[in-house]
Amino acid sequence: MPRTDIRTFDVVIVGAGIGGLVCGCYLAKAGKKVLIVEQHHIPGGYCTTFRRRQFQFDAAANTLGGVERGVLSAIIKELRLDELVRFTRFDPSDIVVTNDYTISFWNDNQRTREEVQRVFPDESKNLDNFLDIFLNPVASLLSSFRYMTFQDVLDRFFNSSRLKRILATPLSGFTGLAPSQLSAIVGHTVYSQQVLDGGYYPIGGMQAFSDALANRFRTFGGDLRLQTRAINFEVQRGKITGVILKGDERISAGCVVSDCDANSTFIDLIGKEHCGSEMLSHLSRMTPSVSMFIAYLGVNGSIGKLLASGANIWKFANNDLESVFREPMNETLDVRNYMVHGSADNKTITALTPALFKEKQFWSEHKSAILDDFIRQLEEDLIPGLSADLLFKDAATPATLWRYTGNQKGSAYGWAPTTSQYAIMQFRKPPFIDNLYLAGHWATYGAGIAGVSYLGRDTARQILRKTRIN
Questions:
Q1: Is there a smaller number of Cβ atoms within 10 Å at the N or the C end of the chain?
Q2: 356-373 pLDDT, tens per residue?
Q3: Boundaries of CATH 3.50.50.60 in the chain?
Q4: Helix (H, G, I), strand (E, B) or coil at 21
């Protein structure tokens, strides 16, 4: 049966993650005819919420950053999202627990500063100078970060290895990398917006934020089709002209934005024959970020004072962050290294630990035992009596994350944001094919929800500039 055009759009966006939704909102707001297709039955990617029995869980992301003074602040105002979703803020937003100290990151950065300085008085002036580069950034200094790691930045300011580890712990958790591997530019952005301006929570769950974007997109005239899978991009003479959907439906497109996995974009949707040997070689050298094993626990009773704060609580048994994030790549899952978060209603607990991708069969055989080990570790460290209070338990594995999002190897953050994998133009606006843009965490220009939100808005601006010129 021959393919027929049933509709034509100015822009087709593949993937309704946050980057795709933000991009679609700005394009539709500007009057463009936009279609977003998403394989899942709900929008949001990792920013989604689900229910099991009487319990509600956030699937992966559990807080937002930059809502007050970062990129999300501007996007919320420009898209009038505050009319559709309200936020609360956990205070503290993050707590780092070590064998020696418990340090909180408060909404009031001065309070954080004073708490750290009481524990590390010899580093007081260094801490002032360190925080100043995030709270009052200078362009010339940031430009010097281009080829530095975040460890280089820490070493520039501090002497104490313990303090360096405490300050880097939330950042490593939010990016999936040890500071010695993390791009200083990416680290600066995430630290500014997720650590020092973090802890924001959409009332109703993380899905409320994704739904607000989806609803605003539709209000602007956009077309969002869920449970719809893109099969191929139609390529003619080095230019993308349309998208083929499952069922052999053809959609004509002036341009296409991919908000999905990079390998899927280039190999499955575009096709190797259109990518060229240089791009395929580049793809083969890229390293995806670490995945996660995520425990979802429903409880009957108190979740404890520490968890009741709503903060992300980081506890890594290893003193060396290098080993925490290197070991999952070497096939070791250590449930002593984790982040745990109590829900706003005190009824659920979510805990995650770095994990290596394994096939479904491995997790079918081992998931239950790993989950039980994880629960015992949480009970021993932070939540006495947890086992007795459990009413529900389940877990997502790297295979689960891959199944629901299509992210290769269940990657939690797209490409690992190392110095060598930052700001690669081929993954932002591929030069070998026209009319294609990437807007998610595989585009190498940002990490986390704030990062992909920035990419979504910037991609829309690029498209609008191009159409004005043409």
A1: N
A2: 888 889 999 999 999 999
A3: 5-48+206-286+414-469
A4: helix
